[in-house]
Protein 1
Amino acid sequence: MRRGPSPGLKVLMALGFGFLYLPIVILVIYSFNESRLVTVWGGWSLKWYRELFANQGLIDAAQVSFLVAAAASTMAAVLGVLAGLTLARVPRFFGRTLFSGMILAPLVMPDVIIGLSLLLTFIALSLDRSILTIAIAHATFSMCYVAVVVQARLAGFDRSVEEAAEDLGARPATVFRRITLPLIAPGVVSGWLLSFTLSLDDLVIASFVAGPGSTTLPIKIFSSVRLGVTPEINAIATILIGLVALGTLVWSLSLKRATARAKRARQG
Amino acid sequence: MAKTPWGRRLTILVPYLWLLAFFLLPFLIVLKIAVSEPAVAQPPYVPVWDSFGAAWAHVRAPDFSNFAFLFSDPLYVNSYLNSLQIAAISTVLTLLVAYPMAYGMALCTPTWRAILLTAVILPFWTSFLIRVYAWIGILKTEGLLNLVLMSLGVISEPLQVHLTPTAVYIGIVYSYLPFMVLPLYASLEKLDLSLLEAAADLGAKPWVVFLRVTLPLSLPGVAAGCFLVFIPAVGEYVIPELLGGASTQMIGRTLWTEFFQNRDWPVASAVAVLLVLVLVVPIVIFQKVAKQGGTG
């Protein structure tokens, strides 16, 4: 018989989740504070949001960030799907150990090392630092996340479905388009979304590989945060948190609906 | 089977070449610059990768003076040791906070499990930088924590938490908590509750059941969680920079300063190479522990 967590454990859980959410809640509330000081509550106000939208530097940085994130996550999705397919479906090829090592290593490699090494590479290849170099850098570590997600999804599916299609005369490209891609699609979308947020979030790697004129939002936020807490940053943080919460909600609801539809289709 | 179709070859080659170009090659370049003389590699930086022959000649006659320099200056040795210590202590603290959360979640009903799981994952999707920044407003001298404690009369003078190692510990535990909760939950969720009941029926006290049954069975999750927190925490830059300030010299900050302020690329590269070497050991140990836990 399941009893559930004891009262003592419930208290510890509440403290843990409180710890996880309290700073975010405080940040959101204070973004609506009329006063500049954290210690003074000057009443509710949208003042900092107005100032935020008047701050051209932050707006430009946000545009750069969204452009980089869109490019990087799309590249990461394509590369990650190929890498995930390779890991899940090709048991043996030359240098497989090196390949799977290179997929896993970026997941735990400190950002400072990835940033430094990529910058030195771009210089050696005489690639000018720009939006493109940031996108390449972000795509490189994000593709590893996509590959892991896609591989996990493929591992759960029966290879025989693809083999049946092949036996019935479908070309490899057709098998991929009609069978494999629909199977891994939810993983690809999750991977793309994850890559997008990772790119939008990255400060350290972007600081290394960004050039003049390609300042991303985190770089901009970081430089103003270093000077102290500013309510404008609270406002932009609240907007970002809101976007993420909305995106997660929409995505999980659509997943739920898709699963329910699949279940009905199977029963019907 | 017939020869590999070109489509499959491309499937392998494209990501393979990409990773070789943008992950392995960068590594080799860092290694190379770390063993080159400062004069060659310092900005304005004459490209040293003129030809593979020349590059190989450099590698064959490496100059380890950058590494000797790292060991001669206590600043570097101290920041390595500091990073390892801070990461180790924060990992233990994260485990202590995360374990009750994961255990409680595993005991909940399926509906509550799903809700709490989303609640753990959601912060992972929100900006890391912003979550660290949120703590500045709470911890600084004229911040919220001091305001609350002083108005409650707990303290009469503001505490200095921001820009101390304590703030770094709080920041790391807070930022990496989901990475610890998720693997712990994954291993605790599979726990057969009848084992706990059997132990209790045989007269074991609750804490004995926990120490002798629950904890050993969750060790793979503990190992995985510690791995996911410790490794990135060692190389952390943002948290010590924003919350620790000058009080915590961690290796990620040292590398950053070396590169962006001192503009000494060979030394920065040498710091990076040593950081990788420092991390290889815990990675191997954790993998072994995880493997043993998985099979045992």
Protein 2
Amino acid sequence: MNLALTDDQELLAKTAADFVAEHSPVARMRKLRDTKDPLGFSRELWREMAGLGWVGIPFPEWAGGAGLGFAELAVVLEALGRNLAPEPFLSSVLLGGQAVLLGGSEPQQKAVLPDLCSGSRLLALAFQEESSRYDVHRVATRATLQGGGWRIVGRKIQVLDAQVADEIVVAARTEGAAGDATGITLFLLRAGAPGLHRVPQHRIDSRNAAIVQLEGVEATRADVLGEVGQGGALLEKVVDRATLGLCAETLGLMSEAFDRTLFYLKTRVQFGVPIGSFQALKHRAARCFIEIELSRSATLAAARALDEGSDEAQKLVSVAKARCSDAAILVSNEALQMHGGIGMTDEHDIGFYLKRARVAELSFGDAAWHRDRYARLEGF
Amino acid sequence: MADLETFRTEVHAWLLAHAPQSLVGSMLSNDEGTWGGRKAVYPNPDAKRWLEIMAERGWTAPAWPREYGGGGLSADEAKLLQQEMAKLRIPPPLVGFGLTMIGPTLLQYGTEKQKREHLPAICRGEIRWCQGYSEPDAGSDLASLKTRAVLDGDHLVVTGEKVWTSYADKCDWIFALVRTDPKGKKQEGITFLLIDMASPGVSVKPVLLISGASPFCETYFDGVRVPVENVVTKLNAGWTVAKALLGHERSMIADVFGGGGPRKAKGSALAALARKHLGAGEPLPDPVLRDQIAQAEMDTKCFSLTVQRSSDGMKSGHKPGAETSMFKYYATELNERRYELMVRIAGPQGLGWEGEGFEPDELGLTRAWLRSRGNSIEGGTSEIQLNVIAKRVLGLPD
């Protein structure tokens, strides 16, 4: 495993950083929030990102994808994270898209992936429930056999971009009890399927999320992703990939929050001197720097491990998520504190970073959850 | 790359053919080794033979130029040699501050005569060096040092006291910072001087630490006459050399604690210790300790990945990145945290000083924990490291 970016990856990182700086200042995200934009992102920008090849990065070339890996996707997501761009990478490319890529039959992939890569179709993955917390196997939603198919009843929460998705992958239990690793089946459902209701939720980061209410939604064998009853393992793989993506985004947001804070420390004058000359703040800033460097190494290593199909991938994803979660909370808390009173105002952008950092921390397992998983994988 | 792979094969074969049989597979941790010097003590006769074999080949300092006793290898080749030795668990033939601190500094700043006099002797393990930096009133504020050196003809006459001189009682030469100009800015009156410890007027007293060991000494200079030609660069220009050497020291410390050496066993060493003291079972019966163990192991992983990212970056031609400035700080803080956790895992069995009721492993652990408390102090305290990061990397104002 080589932890230096290749020349191509360096170039992609630079292109992405330039594009995001030009087309997606934080002011754009603020406006989407203030106007309560029903879409929550920009379709035009999404198509442009698809045109640049970013949406298709982890998908095969036959589907219009780039056939690249998570290291490439990570550098793009880091750039987007810097300016809190709300485009639906996590939901469509990582959660829904990876479920179809890893679990979908050839006809399912052909029906979905080309449109996804071109930016004209959006996906979501409904797996989280009120009592599931971070355990993807804690699925209470039931799919009961009926005729040749199933009837799905349940309630999913905080489904990212559900209200804009064309299709929603739903995890439902065809056997066993909540918590069992087996007995879970993934269904690829049309968002407009009868009995599927979406209720928008409002979270601190102003990103799209919705409750997906399943009131007797009918599904056939053709809607099943992967094997019946084997969706638990698939779900774990998919969420691992999304977790890596979220780490990369988090790395971007903490880097930017820190850069903005450094600028403030150098320019804000109190007692006749820049506040960055105070040792109490210097040492705390240096610790933030260290945490960001560690987060960068862990995220890149996890991306490489996923790309290489390494046995260590799960462990490294947990190392990265635990580190990025803790680091983002530290850095965004310090960023706000060092900005002083102005940081507490809605007018200032630094609060957006604090909010998104908290969402990132409490998505796909917090640091303690990933330490527990790491210990389990290491056998202690 | 094909050349490097060929080199790897050759090195592997050479090591197996030349390393004493008793040493292959013998290395358990990365702090073992032979320190050399006139008072050298070898852990066994094969260690002495191994030093001679490797010195002959130039591989005690593989990346130094051949003309000074080194191996003339590229950085990649030298790293590969280290990797192959680690794989075979062969201990390094020679360790010490000659190789890691004064050698690299002389290569950069020494005169031709100084290089020819000192570097080959370091490579052959004939001369052991110690460091004369800190003084009773000059710790973190190193530049306020007071040991005086007064010019007298073609000699400097040195008077003063150095503290924390590691292993001075076992060393032959000392590289020291001395004040040659008491006026003006304190950094500008310092000279970097090489002193033969056999000179009249040098005396050494070991310092007992909280761990019960005495790796450090106080070193006294009482009118010691040192030839002016032993000055590195120029009079009053020693601060630049001193800082360059500190850079070598910090990377050496980070290397020692950075998990660069071979791992003793697969899996978590902390978890293995916990099984011994808390009983078998999975998950470990104490959920709080288990979480702390996971945290320490994951932090260790993050750090070693960062060291790797840095060296992979340099291999692809990048300059050392900003991340290198954190190595000394993080490596030592992490090492301290791991030892604290180990003592906590050992519980009451971690409280022994000596004698009955404690196993040798337990006593060793406790002493190692006490010794580790110095890691965040020696070689520049953690606070100084954070200052350096704030100033040089983050550009925060004074």
